[in-house]
């Protein structure tokens, strides 16, 4: 029940921000999500959060063609932090985690803004394709899941649940995209949904691996029934860049 209540709270925010809100509200919501995600990431990895916040916001604000500059500068700044550490080996690991988190979280959400700039429905699709898939995976996996997908990383996930996520995500894409993006054929919609859904499931496992390495079960406790914000949007942060890359390639 907590999962449902949380989803009912987040869904209107996502729909309004992606499809109807002025651009500045969309940006504020994306920035808030990204900052919350990075806060949780920094906590579980021991990264230096203040630098991450500044670098990340610069990535979100920067024009598309200038995004590389904040990444380079944040990398150099992270390396400078190692000068003041008592243990160089650990400090280098933390600096690496910091840069990885900046690109992983803020870079991913930046592609969400870029998708919105192409067409707000692309962003809505990128958000929903894995949320719909997660619902299918949760109920099918819980009832029929027998074969573990990645037991060493995420023991609760099953191949049956992963297949259900693909089916429900692709079905959603083949309905949503032709109705909202003019000229999108059913095969194209299905392939884009498949790519975004699979990318999202990989993202879910990647975040689970980060948590497993840090020895924590959830990234936080912000969202009842889900854990932290990062737990809720880990699949989205892989799906958005993959979807944007495909759209850029197909232009």
Walkthrough of the structure:
- The chain has 251 residues and is mainly alpha-helical.
- 78% of the residues lie in helices and 3% in strands.
- The protein has one domain.
- It contains 10 helices and 2 strands, in the order ααααααββαααα.
- It has a two-stranded antiparallel ribbon with strand order 1-2.
- α5 (88-118) packs across α6 (120-144) and α6 (120-144) crosses α10 (236-250).
- The relative contact order is 0.13.
Brief summary:
The protein has about 250 residues and is mainly α.
How is the topology of this model organized?
Elements: H1 2-20, H2 23-45, H3 49-61, H4 68-81, H5 88-118, H6 120-144, E1 148-150, E2 154-158, H7 159-180, H8 186-214, H9 229-233, H10 236-250
Antiparallel strand pairs: 1-2
Radius of gyration based on Cα positions: 18 Å
Shape field: globular
H/E order of the elements?
Answer: HHHHHHEEHHHH
Q: List the uncertain runs.
A: none
Distance between the ends: 42 Å
Main pleated sheet:
2 strands, antiparallel
Strand arrangement within the widest β-sheet reads: 1-2
What's the domain count?
1
Structural class category: mainly alpha
Count, helices:
10
| Strand residues, percent | under 5%
**Strand segment tally:** 2
Percent in helix: over 70%
User: For the residues shown, what is the average pLDDT?
Assistant: 90
């Amino acid at each position: 029940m907590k999962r449902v209540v949380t989803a009912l709270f987040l869904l209107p925010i996502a729909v309004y921000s992606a499809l109807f809100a002025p651009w500045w509200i969309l940006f504020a919501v994306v920035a808030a999500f990204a900052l919350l995600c990075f806060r949780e990431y920094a906590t579980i990895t021991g990264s230096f959060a203040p630098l991450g916040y500044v670098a990340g916001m610069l990535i979100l604000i920067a024009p598309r063609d200038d995004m590389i500059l904040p990444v380079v500068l944040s990398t150099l700044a992270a390396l400078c932090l190692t000068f003041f550490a008592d243990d160089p080996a650990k400090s280098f690991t933390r600096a690496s985690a910091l840069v990885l988190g900046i690109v992983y979280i803020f870079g991913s959400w930046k592609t969400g803004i870029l998708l919105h700039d192409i067409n707000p429905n692309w962003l809505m699709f990128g958000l929903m394709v894995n949320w719909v898939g997660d619902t299918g995976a949760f109920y099918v996996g819980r009832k029929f899941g027998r074969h573990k997908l990645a037991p060493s990383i995420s023991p609760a996930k099953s191949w049956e649940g992963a297949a259900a996520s693909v089916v429900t995500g692709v079905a959603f894409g083949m309905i949503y995209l032709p109705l909202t993006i003019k000229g999108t054929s059913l095969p194209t919609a299905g392939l884009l949904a498949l790519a975004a859904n699979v990318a999202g499931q990989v993202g879910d496992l990647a975040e689970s691996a980060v948590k497993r390495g840090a020895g924590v079960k959830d990234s936080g406790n912000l969202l009842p029934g889900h854990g932290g914000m990062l737990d809720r949007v880990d699949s989205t942060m892989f799906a958005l860049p993959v979807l944007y890359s495909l759209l850029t390639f197909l232009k």
